[in-house]
Write a structure and sequence with these properties.
Belongs to the plant acyltransferase family. The protein has 468 residues and is an alpha+beta fold. The protein has 12 helices and 15 strands. The strands form 3 sheets. A 6-stranded mixed beta sheet has the order 3-8-1-2-5-13, covered by helices on one side. A 6-stranded mixed beta sheet has the order 9-15-14-12-10-11. The radius of gyration is 23 Å and the shape is globular.
């Protein structure tokens, strides 16, 4: 986490780092679904559990012995993919740190930008004792292509003077309940399967100040337009003795998949709630059924992107997003691990283009309806297909919905953020993230890195064509 502040003007920016999907932590679903087994963490416990002691007795449904997951991890075929997903060196030396700072200063000078000075850095540890144990990750988090870290930026309009102390104290208290986040990722009992070592070593926290206010840089409304290295500090383990969150070395080398390198444009579009509600009403009139705002925006996205790509009629276009399976697992209260399963669909480009938006919504709804059956088939090993096997080509697009994660409601005592979103700009995954639009806007913001420059104008025009 990094806090950036101006010493005189009230402007603060907070960046958090968390595992993919915006949710983190170990988990243990019901015994019948052994692929998803892990130890539960219930954050509603009392915060003064002595070290070397485990949590209070678990509910009987979760306390039974669970066999280890039997799915092969396919690490060799995903090694390079995981390296590119993680994009974190195992150790950053002082020389490398200074080199990055010089490069950032050079870029800033060329842009006529501003100076940022690091004030302090170091670990924030849990405020009181936490269990000393090693917890297995849920299976989905052990899968090689899902081990990357997702970085996010949270920007606040005011509170710079109070923010360092408030956030540091709040973080220390939160880590008592969510103590695995203060641990380190290490190799577990199963070869190639990372686990969480609950060491209470803490999370990285840095404080810096700039000779400008966030208002001067428009609150970093388009953060990915800036070099990521200028925004994200990388703690060197030689600086404060931290075993890095890096599982690359746990994977066996082998044949590397060929991955495309896509020069994707970064596009930000906002959709008012009234516009989304109108599309949902149209779908109700079309089918007699309800749909979500995610459904209609994703349908429009898939069709507009397919049109912009100008593919051959028979070319297969693919859409993928992850859906929650919490309702299928019937998890106990307090579970906060990942419970997701991929929803995939594929169709000839001619079908996507020849359908109405409402018919594309039908395709998405049908895929979501199939998800429960596909999930249980996979969990019970009744299928040979691997639903987590991903395709990375220009015809495929991946969509994430962050609009309900609650980031926009986080308030440390100086108001909600003016922006909260991911810092993800992979060069080999065409992706879109939906966020709750920042105040004072009312609606959904789309962060898209899904088309190259030659297709971006037509894609954006198609997405906005029926907005009043």
């Amino acid at each position: 986490m990094t806090l950036l502040r101006h010493p005189e003007r009230q402007a603060a920016s907070v960046r958090q780092k968390h595992p993919s999907g915006g949710q983190s932590g170990p988990s243990r679903p019901p015994n019948s679904l052994r692929k998803f087994n892990a130890v539960p963490v219930v954050p509603t416990r009392q915060p003064h559990t002595p070290r070397n002691k485990h949590l209070p007795p678990q509910p009987q449904a979760l306390a039974r012995e669970r066999p280890q997951a039997s799915i092969p991890f396919k690490t060799s075929s995903h090694t390079k993919l995981h390296q590119r997903l993680l994009k974190l060196p195992s150790k950053i030396t002082q020389a490398e740190r200074e080199k990055r700072e010089r490069e950032a200063a050079s870029r800033a000078a060329g842009m006529g930008s501003f100076k940022v000075t690091r004030i302090s850095e170091g670990p924030v540890k849990p405020a009181s004792a936490t269990p000393d144990e090693t917890l297995p990750l849920a299976w989905v988090d052990r899968y090689p292509t899902h081990r990357g870290l997702v970085e996010s930026m949270h920007i606040f309009r005011s509170g710079a003077d109070a923010a360092p102390g408030v956030i540091r104290e709040a973080l220390g208290k939160a880590l008592v309940h969510f103590y695995p986040l203060a641990g380190r990722i290490a190799e577990g009992d199963e070869p190639g399967a990372p686990a969480i070592r609950c060491t209470a070593d803490g999370v990285y926290f840095a404080e810096a100040e700039a000779d400008c206010s966030l208002e001067d840089v428009r609150y970093l409304e388009r953060p990915l337009m800036l070099p990521k290295e200028d925004l994200v500090p990388y703690p060197g383990d030689d600086r404060w003795g931290v075993e890095p969150h890096n599982t690359i070395m746990m994977m066996q080398p082998g044949p590397l998949p060929e991955l495309p390198v896509l020069a994707l444009d970064y596009i930000v579009l906002d959709f008012p709630t009234s516009y989304i509600d109108d599309l949902k009403k149209q779908y109700k009139a079309h089918s007699g059924k309800f749909c979500s705002g995610f459904d209609v925006l994703t349908a429009k996205l898939w069709q507009c992107r397919t049109r912009a790509l100008k593919l051959e009629p028979e070319a297969e276009v693919k859409l993928c997003f992850f859906a929650s399976v919490r309702h299928l697992l019937k998890l106990d209260r307090g579970y906060y691990g990942n419970s997701i399963f991929p929803v995939k669909m594929s169709a000839p480009s001619s079908k996507v283009l020849g359908s109405s938006i409402m018919e594309v919504v039908d395709m998405i709804r049908q895929a979501k309806d199939r998800m429960a059956v596909e999930f249980f088939q996979f969990a019970k090993e009744e299928t040979d297909q691997d639903p987590f096997q991903m395709t990375f080509n220009y015809e495929s697009i991946y969509v994430s919905d962050w609009s309900k994660l609650g980031f926009s409601e986080v308030d440390y005592g100086f108001g909600p953020p003016v922006f909260a979103g991911p810092l993800v700009n992979n060069d080999f995954i065409a992706s879109v993230v939906f966020l709750k639009a920042p105040l004072p806007l009312d609606g959904t913001r789309m962060l898209a890195s899904c088309v190259t420059k030659e297709h971006s104008e037509e894609f954006a025009r198609g997405m906005m064509e029926d907005l009043s």
